[in-house]
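We include the pair:
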Amino acid sequence: MKSSINMRGVTFLMFFFFVSLVLSQEVYVLDADSREGIGNVVVTNEDRSKTVITGLTGRCDLKIFSGNEKITFRHMGYLTFRTTKDQIQRKQNKVFLTLNPQQLDEVVMSISKWEQQKKDIPQKIASIDARSISFNNPQTSADLLQSSGKVFVQKSQLGGGSPMIRGFATNRLLLSVDGVRMNNAIFRGGNIQNVISIDPYAVKNTEVIFGPGSVIYGSDAIGGVMNFYTKKPTFADNGDPVFSGSAAYRFASANNENTFHTDFNFGKKKWSFLSSITYNTFDDLKMGKHGPASYLRDTYVVTENGSDVLRNNPSPRRQVPTGYNQISLMQKISHKPNSNWEYELGIHYSETSDYSRYDRLIQPGSDGSGLGSAEWYYGPQKWLMSNVQVYKKGRGKFYDGVKLTAAYQFFEESRNERDFGDLQRYSSREQVDAISTNLDFENKKIGDLRLYYGAEYVFNRVSSSGFQTDISNGSELPAPSRYPDGARWQTLAAYLNGEYKLKPNFTLLAGMRYSHVWTKADFDTTFYPFPFDEASLS
């Protein structure tokens, strides 16, 4: 019996050693900075008689190479790396590639909605890639833009961020997520905070166009375009399912931030799933020692027994109250039945708690003393987007590529304000239902002329209400709304854009767009004596 057990043990050890030896042939090719897998790396021997290519996760099998054989790793955008299989095994079967700083063939999509070489585009465009986002580790997408050094972001409070490009802002700049416009009918002339609804942990890269993008995107883009491309699900290289994930925690002492994030990807050959969740808690922001004295918070308001009272702030650099919470969710499902077709469903949801507008809270009263406002805060900001995208590659009669994007979005925001000593709080609440459909084509058949064309339809419906609340007893009365309740806005557009390369270093871009706009709004004369009760445009 003892001999039998020993033989089984020896057999098991030999089997384990054999399996380990086989598995050791697999290596991972990773980015030296981000430690993420690099796909499509070409691995060859010196005479290139043996070749393997890494999968999307950076994995490949080196069993065709001998132990001391020279192996070369090549990838566009990275420096070439040479080693041997024996050396790789001594480094835990991992190969790290360094980004090539002289790589100029950067690909962008914002100019035409299709991939183009950045060096061929005469318009100024900035790319914020995953490496930069990971390195800067921004708290919000407003910080993501600001940390790039390319976009000025106006902030009236911690829970804010209104991008500005060349003096243009809000309804003169276009925000888009995965090709779907965030701009809606209530994008006003003042500062807006919608960009913080985009989770920076879910963003793969961002492209910023400095200048008009109206041909492709419409009049909203007269000042510039900010395109956020979120992460995509990863498919398996072969029949074996792949699972990957990450988790992160961040603390920042300036506002006692606590951020929790996790995401995971499950992929098969034709199906893939990506889930992401981020939860942020921000306490009151503490200003630096060398900040402007006008932003110090010497006193703040508390309400006791129905009366407003000024309290001294023991830490004037602490901006009371500016803290808020936020949750961001993303779910993506992709299906690729073959190499020509791909379908993707994306669902995004973001919601904040109430957050105060700090610049209003520190303004003095009308007589120059005390504080003018007891309360001034934005209500929960909610954003839901569900979009379906269909991609078709391959030559057709009138196109080489076609992309259909259909989306539904829901926006909710509100503002609440109350003067110091006033029992009445005035509130307004807005909700927008937005439907959009885009059909985009790429055609590159006509010699050196490359054409991009498509159509767009957008529909918005606005729900707006106002009310005032007596803080002493909680009773509510109607009040004026910010916008006409039930207003509708829609547009139908078509565009044509052409790129003609006269010489390798000389490219012409030209385009045109036709848009038709309809709008209808009914005005309530209960609070304001308007000389009309409706307005329309068709």
